[in-house]
């Protein structure tokens, strides 16, 4: 029976722009290698990776197999995505250097290009060095030619909107948004299950493929990305903040000033808990998952209710597929 929260072994992904800060979130980093991403929960299309259960009676079983055998228990009324995969991909990202200027396709583009999949995402800033930026969207009136010229001349600020990266802020990036995570920023990421990325520019780095035509075809030059959601004020008791309720996923944040118990109806859908700060025990009839900063758990829909014991000063990010 699926009667407890499920935890998975993180998949560590080397990136040219990655660093070493994910070690501070409990990740066992390989020596002397820049790690940019920790995939906490993944079930990619085709032969892509599927997260493996790390403890409990289902230890060693990939999420994909678990969905085959316990679909209704995990998903409830929520369907899998069009590729018959879990709809969310959950990550932590460490940007020691700027990520490439990039864009992800919307569903209309993906429908006409086999092998491409819609990708919309959101970032919660966990740490940011002074002066760090998040690039999100192009300025009104920017043409494709103007964008390419500005990037070639290393003046992205002339054509791209940017925001100072502030700890605790949330940034939703719908598909079609030209964007880049700036150097010095550590984030938690919730996104749709896709790894389709079209790079437009890579800050002078050599050796990585660019996808200029596909990127320009996918960029939405008209619609600005959603406004930044600022960090919530410090919580005395238990506070809940809605970060985004969009066509792909819902994100909420729970913060507590004092040790307490948090409960929420799952609504017959799965929920992912990411611990941003502090410690928590997410419980079910058959067991508990201990969460500390940097750890993640999946609550199957069949639990009915999400319950967690939160230590003083704990913050959780809650994500549910739409």
Describe the 3D structure:
- The protein is mostly beta strands and 322 residues long.
- The protein folds into 2 domains: 11-218, Jelly Rolls; 238-321, Sandwich (Jelly Rolls), CATH 2.60.120.10.
- The protein has helices spanning 63-69, 71-75, 107-111, 144-152, 212-218, and strands spanning 11-19, 35-41, 88-95, 101-103, 121-128, 133-138, 160-164, 170-173, 179-181, 185-192, 198-201, 238-245, 249-256, 260-265, 271-277, 279-284, 287-292, 296-299, 305-310, 315-321.
- The strands form 5 sheets. It has a 6-stranded antiparallel beta sheet with strand order 1-2-3-10-5-8, with no helix packed on it.
- The longest helix has 9 residues, at 144-152.
- The chain is globular.
- The chain starts with 10 loop residues before the first strand and ends with a strand.
Topology record:
Layout: E1 11-19, E2 35-41, H1 63-69, H2 71-75, E3 88-95, E4 101-103, H3 107-111, E5 121-128, E6 133-138, H4 144-152, E7 160-164, E8 170-173, E9 179-181, E10 185-192, E11 198-201, H5 212-218, E12 238-245, E13 249-256, E14 260-265, E15 271-277, E16 279-284, E17 287-292, E18 296-299, E19 305-310, E20 315-321
Antiparallel strand pairs: 1-2, 2-3, 3-10, 4-11, 5-8, 5-10, 6-7, 6-9, 12-13, 13-20, 14-19, 15-18, 15-20, 16-17, 16-19
